[in-house]
Amino acid sequence: MSNSQNDTTAVASAASLTIGGLFCHQARYHPRRVALQDADGEYTYGEVNERVNRLANWLAERGLRRGERVAVLSENRIEYLEAMLAAAKLGAIVAAQNWRLAAGELEHCIRLTEPRIMLVSERHTPVLADVNHTVPTVLRFGEDYESALAGASIAEPTNAAQGEDGLLILYTSGTTGLPKGALISHRAEIARGQTFYIDHEIEREDAFVAWAPLFHMVSTDLSLAALCRGSKVIVQDGYDPDALAAVVGRERIGWLVLMPGMIESFIEAMGRGGIQPSSVKSCGCMADLVPLHQIAEVTRLLDAPYVNSFGSTETGSGPATAGLIAPGTVAKNLSKVQSS
Q: What Pfam families does the record point to (predicted)?
């Protein structure tokens, strides 16, 4: 076979990769490695894959097919990521609903994507009750969800997805009007996550803390990228400075997401607990919205550069970024030219 034929075969093989297939690979070869962690415990790749299979088969039994949508309305929890992976195996699409929206806006988002099935947490069930939706099947996380999984097959479902199939719908309001749904394919999601990991030299042993909402690109992109690489995702129910500081003190972290407005309280939590960071490769985002002295203080504390990020829901973060601010540096230029 010629080099050109080899190159064509390699490109075709890479283009056919899917999120479900990559996760299955990790579960098959590293079943005892920790995949997910929350306040209640840790779950291995093998354990998570079994639950994902059960959910995928339950969804399929209720008629969910390739290209159809399953909506999720929930705070951050392990079941949210299970839903993403289950849909990925079926070639179905998760429409991640923003629980911060008013009932009318939420109704618009649900009707826009016409989901066949809705997964909702107990916390947000009352919100859904106020929405005039037409979703035929609604499953609530908790006892109902666990009962559904217990009665479903553990068999590996047929991976119906292809690389260019839709994987996620993340909503973005842009500049005007009601939220729009940005459809992200398997191939795009793989590229988004892996590009960030490569740029920031994040390794398999580096965990990702998913505290930012899973309806947002930050937690979604990096969580799925981590699970495709065999890394650990630590799921937290929103921002809790003390809980986040505790994780930083005991875990090896790749990119620590720190949003503008939370950095001061995070620094205080680290000091209050007398916590020394274990290992952080990089931290922060949107440097132009953060006081320069806070960037210098938090990077010095973590001994990690600050990410002067640039990206969008539709595209993810740009590749080949040079937008890093060195630890302890009071930046004089926050241009995003190198990050775009």
A: AMP-binding (PF00501)
For the chain, the domains span: 44-184, 194-339
Q: Is 68 helix (H, G, I), strand (E, B) or coil?
A: coil
Cα-based distances in Å from 68 to 94, 95, 117, 181, 228 = 9, 10, 9, 14, 23
Q: Residue 107, class by beta-carbon neighbours within 10 Å (0-12 exposed, 13-18 middle, 19+ buried)?
A: middle
* Count of Cβ atoms closer than 10 Å to residue 25 Cβ: 14
CATH superfamily for domain 194-339: ANL, N-terminal domain (3.40.50.12780)
Smallest CA-to-CA distance from 316 within 200, 173, 218 is with 218
- pTM recorded for the entire structure: 0.94
Burial of 177 (0-12, 13-18, 19+ CB in 10 A): exposed
Interval 32-79: pLDDT, tens: 999 999 999 999 999 999 999 999 999 999 999 999 999 999 999 999
Tell me how far apart the alpha carbons of residues 257 and 93 are, in angstroms, rounded to a whole number.
26
Give the DSSP letter of residue 142: T
Question: What is the band of 340 on the pLDDT scale with cuts at 50, 70, 90?
Answer: very low
Fold (CATH) for 44-184: Rossmann fold (3.40.50)
